[in-house]
Amino acid sequence: MGFIILSGSNLQGADLTFAQLHEANLTNTDLRYADLQNVDLKEAKLYGANLESSNLAGANLTNTSFAFANLEGANLTGTILTNTYFGYANLKGVIGLDDFENLKNKVKSLECTIMPDGTIKIHDDTQCTRTPN
User: Which pTM was predicted?
Assistant: First the structure.
């Protein structure tokens, strides 16, 4: 695949349950309040995407990049997060990421990420030069 290019699209509130978006380019896409349950987003690029209050329960997010994305209030219950990149993302209020120790062992990066409790995760002595969303 890899030919699905929806970057910059407005998909606010869209029902994409069970969609096959493997390797899709969703950079800067508006997915607020979208239903993405059980969607295949493996290796997708969601750089700067807005997924506020979206439902990603059961989604495959393996090797997916959420760099600079806004996932505030999203539901990530039961998602596959193997090697997922969350650098500089906003995860404030996200549902389903309760086990931080387990999370940090699965994902690729949480550097400069706003965590579900509102704190900013800083790796080692890294300075976050840009405040995430």
Answer: 0.90
